[in-house]
Amino acid sequence: MNPFIFNTTPQIVFRTGAAAGIGDIVKKKLGERILFVTDAGLRGLGLCDPALASLAASGIEVTVFDSVEADPSLATVMAASDMARPTGVTGIIGFGGGSSLDVAKVVALLCGSGENIDEAWGVGNAKGPRLPLVLVPTTAGTGSEVTSVSIITVGGGEKRGISSPIILPDIAILDADLTIGLPAHITAATGIDAMVHAIEAYASKSANNNPLSKMLARQALQLLGANIEKAVFDGQDHGARGAMLLGSMLAGQAFANSPVAAVHALAYPIGGTFHIPHGLSNALVLPHVLRFNAPDAASVYAEIAADAFPDLVSEREDEGRCAAFIERLAGLSEKLGLQSRLRDVGIGEEHLAVMARDAMKQTRLLVNNPREVSERDALSIYRAAW
């Protein structure tokens, strides 16, 4: 067995209604002055109100930063940090989708250490320490509450990441109630995103791919595959919502330690340049990347096919099961109402070459892919997806 390192969030609270009692959960860890990082949409819907009321009732002074956008920018990170420092915050809460959680991670790092963010980009470059940090996801997709990565958009639509166990939170709070009002199209896109995390973690060529990540990836696919349609088409189903939230977290633990690959690398230019939500960006290229990988990864994909789609156990040959798995994933996106082609989201054929060039910048991801990807290969995949 190869040596490996497995890092994850030290404490995970999975309980319906937990956000409404967050003050009691976090006070000892975060102290008496916190920055609450979220977005204006959640604030306007009142989804933050029970948590904010609980924090106030626990005697915690709260400063709210609610300007996080999709694919958060470096300017947003710096604005949140600038808001936190004068108040002398003792801890950070990230409340929302992956964007809010990613911003909260970096703010906790910058305010805790005072380091220059330009020196923190990349793998293992963050020095720390960070401020105490609690993350509360309101979507079942990114798994950011248990990952050591934060992705931020810098100039020109380029995405950069900080990857370090230092930015893992102290506590993750999973409350299915927070996902009940999530629109169907967001539920679908974030759910597919979580499935991509599990698939890519399981098949990753990373030297740190390990038995724990593989086990978690398979459990995640079982939960996600069995519940994604229920969650999309009956958004009030608490059981399905809770299963999706747990599946997303398990997939997050898997890929945090066995990193993702070409699906994400090719999705980043779609999100960074055209501002397509991350989950949908992944869904648009997923089947096409898997078809490209199949000559080298058919047996690996065959191992997990029946986790997501139990009836595929009847497929005897690896190649047949792999092919059926890919087609079922493609069909699932369409069944859930997601756009299936790049042209459907306003991307012109003339953009594909630049996207292929930009995708090749994601070397930290491409190195994990089961099959080597050249710029020509990336362009062919985009053309198939167009």
- What percentage of the residues does DSSP assign to strands (E)? 5-15%
Largest sheet: spatial strand order: 1-9-6-4-2-3
What oligomeric arrangement do these chains adopt?
single chain
What is the percent of helical residues?
40-55%
CATH superfamily caption of the largest domain: Dehydroquinate synthase-like - alpha domain
Supply the number of structural domains: 2
The radius of gyration is 20 Å
The N- and C-terminal alpha carbons lie at a distance of 41 Å
SSE order: EHEHHEHEHEEEEEHHHHHHHHH
The chain-level structural class is alpha/beta
Tally of helical runs: 14
**What is the C-level CATH assignment of the largest domain?**
Mainly Alpha
Within the CATH hierarchy, at the fold level, what is the topology of the largest domain?
Dehydroquinate synthase-like, alpha domain
If you had to describe this structure to a student in words, what would you say it looks like?
The chain has 14 helices and 9 strands. It starts with 10 loop residues before the first strand and ends with a helix. The protein folds into 2 domains: 168 residues, Rossmann fold (3-Layer(aba) Sandwich); 206 residues, Dehydroquinate synthase-like, alpha domain (Up-down Bundle). The model has no long low-confidence stretch (mean pLDDT 96). 52% of the residues lie in helices and 11% in strands. It is of the alpha/beta class and 386 residues long. The strands form 2 sheets. The chain has a 6-stranded parallel β-sheet, with helices on both faces. The chain has a 3-stranded mixed β-sheet with strand order 5-8-7. The longest helix has 31 residues.
